[in-house]
Amino acid sequence: MSIISHLLSIRTSIYLTRNILRPTSRLIQNRFVSSTSLLLNKPDIKSSTIPLELPSSEKKKAKYNISWKTVTVTVLGGASLIAFIYYLDQRKAKNRRKLQRAAVGKMAIGGPFSLITHDKKPVTDKDFHGQWLLIYFGFTHCPDICPEELEKLAEITKTLYKQKNKQQYPFQPVFVSVDPERDTPELISRYLKDYSSHFIGLTGTREQVADMCKHYRVYFSQGPKVGDDYIVDHAIIMYLINPNGDFVDYYGRNKNAKEVADAIEQHMNTFKEMNK
Amino acid sequence: MSVIDKNYRQKCWLARDEYWKCLDMNTEDKEKCLKYRQLFESSCPATWVTHFDQKRDYDIFKQQLAVGQVETDKLKSIKQQPTP
Question: Which cysteines link up through disulfide bonds (chain A) (predicted)?
């Protein structure tokens, strides 16, 4: 706003100079002329005394400078300049807001990982660059929570795939097992097909899984054994990773499929805007 | 058939829900729901049975907390226990 007031003062001063001060300066010139002619003893057409008001010819000239035409031009020019400055101001504010939103995602979550897919293909985090990832950590022997969350993930996937053509980078749902001893690629493949054909399941050695969970701050712990069976206690969370491999957002049990899908779409749009 | 298969899981959840419905109707009287309990225990792995039992207890406790009527004799017994 200070820019606008500053420009207004410039505008005003230009207006004043052009339309008021110039005829006044001309008036002063005339005064000079009449007094010098008096000194030279030359008869002057104009009177030797300082005219108290503008002679009719001067009056006409002054009026010409402050005509409706010049006033309209000045006002329109000023208004368009102010509008332009306002537009630039708004654009700057919008960009500032976008950067603020993007900065929230720069928490120390995420990092490299090296695992194998349910198709027994070895992958690293770099293989997923260029895709939006929604990662859920769970295990196949989970009683109720993982099935619920995976149903949610399937619904989110279905919703986002409807807009597939408008999306710059593809969306890829990922399941990571926190029970690598039991969850072999075959088991994961069998488990995930009941939820969605689009899911990628990841597993590996205990060290590989523990390493990824450390980077992603995911707690997991094997519960008491009953025979050979046990339940793994773990953080119930979905992480959104952008096409650059950076962590962007997280979603817990409190968010339903629609809320998560909407949030992801917003992030996709923000990412598109910032990377134009 | 194991927990990996969707059908197995759904059968287990159904048996669990039937058992819980019986308990709801009989104010947690386990004696009256023995038949459902047996079906539940045969449909689900032991770890899941324990897990669901704990979940039920927790949900009931949460409900009572919300309503403001936590069982006072339970609290009394906790207070009477020697500190470990």
Answer: 142-146
Mutate to test the interface with A, among B1, B11, B13, B47 (most CBs of A within 10 A): B47
d(CA B59, CA B12): 19
The domain spans of chain A are 70-106, 114-275
pLDDT, greater one: A85 or A14: A85
- Strands A122-124 and A132-138 turn out to be unpaired
Sign of CA dihedral B13, B15, B16, B21: positive
- Of A50, A172, A185, nearest to A118 (Cα)? A185
Worst-scoring range by mean pLDDT, A7-16, A128-137, B7-16?
A7-16
Condensed to tens digits (0 to 9), the pLDDT of residues B63-73 reads 888 887 765 66
Cα B17–B20–B21 angle (5° rounding)? 85
**pTM higher than the cut 0.80:** no
Give the model's confidence band at A274: pLDDT under 50 very low, under 70 low, under 90 confident, else very high.
confident
Long-range CB pairs of A120-125, under 8 A, 24+ apart, other chains included: A120/A185, A123/A202, A125/A245
B47, A226: Cβ pair inside 8 Å? Answer: yes
- Say if CB B9 and CB A144 are below 8 A apart: no
User: Contact A141/B46, CB-based, under 8 Å?
Assistant: no
Contact list in B for residue A141 (CB cut-off 8 A) is 3-4, 47
Contact predicate A245/A110, CB 8 Å: yes
Helix A2-16 and helix A68-104, axial crossing angle in degrees, nearest 10: 160
Structure tokens at A78: 């000023």
Q: From A225, which residue of chain B is nearest by alpha-carbon distance?
A: B47
User: Where do the structural domains in chain B lie, given as residue ranges?
Assistant: 6-80
- Main-chain dihedrals φ then ψ at residue B13, nearest 5 degrees: -65, -35
**CATH dotted code for A114-275:** 3.40.30.10
